[in-house]
Structures are given as C-alpha cells and as structure tokens.
Amino acid sequence: MKKLFLYIFLVLMVCNVGSADETSDIKLVQEYKDKLFESAIKSDLNQVEKICTQYKKDKAENVIIDLENSLNWLCSGGLRPIFMDITYEYNKKFFNEKLSHIDICNEYKKLPIDASGYDQMSLNTHMGINNHCKTVEIKSKFKQDAKHNLIKNLDIEKLNFNFLTNKYYSLLIPEEEVTKKSTCHLNLEKEERLDYLKIKERCGVKNITYQEESLSGAAGELDTFELTSERDLTSGWIIITDYFYADANKDDYMDLIIRFKNDGSYSMGANTMTTVITSLSENKYQNINFWHSSWVIESALPEIKSPQVPKKYPTIACTVFEVNGKVDSSETGKIYRINLNDKIIVETSNSLIKYEWKNSNYFISASYNRISKVNTIIGYSDPERKVIAITTKLNCEEE
Fold this sequence. Notes:
It is a single chain. The protein has helices spanning 2-41, 45-60, 70-74, 80-93, 101-110, 120-141, 196-203, 230-234, and strands at residues 169-172, 193-195, 208-213, 222-227, 236-246, 255-264, 273-281, 284-287, 315-323, 326-327, 336-339, 344-348, 352-358, 363-369, 374-380, 388-398. The chain is α+β, with helices and mostly antiparallel strands. The protein folds into three domains: 2-141, no CATH class; 150-304, no CATH class; 315-398. A hairpin with a 2-residue loop joins β7 (273-281) and β8. α5 (101-110) packs across α6 (120-141).
C-alpha cells in the first residue's frame, strides 16, 4: 500500500511540473507575440528580425517549446504573417461581449494593414471586420429616435425582396411575373442567408435578375446578371448581417436599416451593403438610398454613402523592386509616376490608399501603404478579379 501511495505521489508531482512548464511556455510565447505585434505595427522590420533571431535561438536551446509553432509561422518572413495574425486576434475580440465594438474598430482602423498580400481566408476576415465596423459606425451615427415611427408597421417577417436595393445593387423581381405572391418575401427576423434558387421558388418566377456595381466599367455603372440554371441560382446567395431602426437621414421619421451582402461560392470576399426603408405615410414604404424605378425615391443620405473622395490625391513616384515574387533588377533606375486622381479610389486613410483601374491588358487593384511606402499592384486577367496574371511591388514616394 505504501508503494502505491508513493507511486501516486510521484505521478502527481510529474503532472504538476509538466503543467507548470506548459503554463510558463504559453506565457513566454505570448510575450514574444506581443513584441512582434508591437514592432510590426510600428513597421519596424529590423526589430522583428531581431526578435525572431532570439526566438530561434531560444527554440534551439529548449528555452521555449512553442508546441503549436505559432511563433515559427510569425517569423516565416516579413510583416505579412504577423499582420495576418493581428487581424485574426482582432476578429476574436468581437466575440467578447464585455469589449466595446466601436473601440475595437477604432483601434483596427489605425493599424497600417496592407491586406493585398493576405491569403484568402485572412483577406475575408479583414473584409469581415471592415464590414462589421461599418455597421457599428452607422449605428453610432444615426439618431435612435424620431417624432414619427410609421416604419414599425412594416411586417419584417414578410419583407418584399425588391427592398434589397441600393446604389450598388438591385434585386429585380417584377410584380407581374410573381406567381406565388403569398410566399414571395424574406423573413428578416429569422433568415440570415437565402440562395437565389429559394428566392426563385418562393416567388414562382422563371429566373432571377439582379444588378451589381461593375468592376470593369465606370464608377457607379451596374452590370446585369440573369440567373437561370440551378448551378447559377445555388452558387449565389444573400446574407443579412444586421438590421435595426434609426432616423438615418434626420427627417424625424424612423427608418429600417438593413446591412446585407450579395455573396456566393464564386466570391473572394463580399462587401456589406446598406439599404434603408422608410415610411412617410400610413402603410406606404419606400427605399431612400437613391432613385431607381418605383421602389426608391431620391434623398440625401450622407451617412451611408461611400466615403467622399477628396478633390485631390497625390501623385506617387515609384520604382519597381519585385515582379511575381522575384526581385527585378531590370527596372532599376526607372521611375513611374502614378496620378491617383485618375484612378478609382476604393479606400483611403492616413496609412493606406486602395485604388483600381483598367488598362488594355488587365483589371488592376492596387494598395499603397503610406507608412512602409510599398505599393502593391495586382493585375487580373478577368473582370471578377479572380485570376491573377501579374503582381508588382514598388517603392513609392508622394510628390
């Protein structure tokens, strides 16, 4: 019996030591991560390399175990893997109900993130954060009360699909073609995702047509998509990300604001859009985003429009240093001047300018990091920007 007790005691001692070692290692890994995050946010690549050198030394000497090899990934080269992990960590914060989402969003906006080098999963996470933060921003800016609240009489369990319409997207289901009027609607309270096949079946129409902002045409131009095959109808869907009531345009009438995506299996990350429905008289409802057919009226709504483009953007003088992941010395000494006023500006901040354009060969998306001075330009061979034909990196200075 004494031997049994002694054996149990020794086992417990080993387990406690192992647990203490594991806790210590987790703490050490976190300390390294914090240092790497801090240095990356400062765009201090030299400090990142020093930290990674020390980590590899500690790893070789068994000072740190890092069983999941998370630090090994962060030290795999440059700032890209670190910022991808930063994005992942910020995304986790939104699941903590004790944290203020507006504060998290404000912090994230200040980070010098260049997502053009992200893998698809990280890019989708980054876009998801930006979309959610836009919703949070809209909620914080809109008035939460109004003198008139006629919109409350709109049955959101039977919302007409045609109300999912705004400046960048229109779902077009002509009333005269609907053969199942009693079921041709969306249950906003219960349904978060609905593919186009289900919409077609509910409305009893022959096909589904929608319009979406063109990626290859002029700014504001819409392309029309007619979905007829089952494959087309099931590979695209609408996602409702949020809805709430507020006085969006400050006219003392409450509105219904819906945040949604036109997404699908083809998508490389869809932006969240906004539609606003209001009621100015009993049992009459209308969109107020922009004028389009009989479903919407013209109205100023500055809070939900795309960020206003400044009248003048800088011209940047650039030199190529990398093409398709390889150093390109053939471009040494050549200076390319890019006038950003000639481009379609997608996003701008003190740390980043994202822009697009089209030339005779490619559909082009670019991201200029104003802190690191690196301008990443990706040329796609297709208007959907799915097939990458060429990637170029340039060092740039604003003139």
